[in-house]
Design goal:
With 327 residues, this protein is α/β, with parallel strands linked by helices. The protein folds into two domains: 238 residues, 3-Layer(aba) Sandwich (Rossmann fold), CATH 3.40.50; 68 residues, no CATH class. The chain has eleven helices and eight strands.
């Protein structure tokens, strides 16, 4: 998720923070159950679960966790059973391993699908990339909806920033690592590019410290999520330039994006729309990269209204008949 908005807003009112788990049944919303599965390599993958009906697995994006799409899951819960796994390194799931790659992520997803019987996936950003690869390689996937999947068109995308990021995380310089990733992933608006790096690091540390101070002991904070960005960067680099591998996909694919989404991902999304044999495309006017996610410290512009817009389209896609191949 984009952290540049938080840097811009640090001097103003504090943004909402996803520092506590949603209260089951609060405000009349459906209660969330918890569970876990074991992936192929023995790693535990925890998940939240809500609703009844055909199963959908929701794969969250970078700097997110299973708790990042509770609004979407609850809105779909009257018609579907929604599974919200914590991708590795987050929340109730086990750690990454040194050989982590897209295959590992697909195996984790496959374990949740086997438990749930799901044939439908919704994925966001890096989670959308995993969802697409699962739909390409797993025979049981019928439908996949992805919001701005992190598939890059350029096979030579510069991922050199990952080494600096890894070194900063290892040295405990989490705020510095987050600034490194913001520029590496081209998340920084132009006005931030002229601000001295040390000042941006200081602002980021201040923002994370505020969240830490309010957070419950088991909360999934930005500081805890930060190391996972490295592994998402590896996935993006691994899949960069591989649009053509999706040309023969048999699953129906729904490509969603916002007109104010991440420009880095636009060329890949457009190319993907051009090669998928069974696809539907929607762009939401005025929505950004975090439109499907709950409001949080990493998604301060999130709100129930934008989630509802995404839900309407996603529900229609998953509930409807299979799409016809494009002419």
């Amino acid at each position: 998720m984009d952290t540049s908005d938080q840097l811009a807003d640090t001097a103003g009112p504090e943004s909402a923070s996803d520092t506590t788990s949603p209260r089951p049944g609060a405000d009349g919303t459906p209660a969330m159950d918890t569970g876990s599965v074991v992936s192929r390599d023995g790693t535990r993958i925890g998940y939240l679960k809500v609703g009844h009906g055909p199963a959908i697995v929701v794969m969250h994006g970078s700097m997110e966790s299973a708790h990042s799409h509770t609004l979407l899951a609850q809105a779909l819960s009257d018609d579907f059973t929604v599974y919200l796994p914590d991708r590795r390194g987050r929340g109730s799931s086990g750690p990454h391993r040194p050989d982590h790659d897209i295959r590992t992520e697909v195996e984790d997803l496959a374990a949740v699908m086997a438990e749930s019987g799901a044939q439908m996936i919704f994925g966001v950003s890096a989670g959308g990339l995993v969802a697409l690869e699962a739909a390409r390689t797993l025979p049981d996937v019928r439908k996949v909806a992805v919001y701005e999947p992190a598939l890059l068109l350029d096979p030579n995308w510069d991922a050199a920033w990952l080494q600096r990021f890894e070194e900063e995380i290892a040295a405990g310089k989490v705020a510095a690592a987050m600034v490194t990733s913001m520029f590496g992933l081209e998340l920084a608006p132009s006005f931030l590019k002229v601000i001295p790096r040390r000042f941006m690091v200081s602002l980021t540390e201040r923002m994370m410290s505020k969240e830490d101070g309010k957070a419950a002991r088991d909360a999934i904070t930005m500081r805890k999520l930060a190391p996972t960005v490295y592994y998402d960067g590896l996935l993006i680099k691994e899949m960069a330039g591989k649009v053509d591998v999706f040309r023969d996909m048999t699953a129906d694919v729904f490509l969603l994006s916002g007109s104010r989404g991440l420009r880095l991902l636009t060329p890949g999304g457009e190319a993907l729309a051009g090669v998928l044999p069974h696809r539907r495309v929607v762009e939401f006017a005025g929505l950004d990269h975090g439109a499907s996610s709950d409001p949080s410290a990493t998604n301060p512009k999130g709100n129930p209204e934008t989630v509802a817009q995404v839900v309407r389209e996603v529900r229609s896609f998953f509930a409807g008949p299979a799409s016809a191949p494009p002419a």
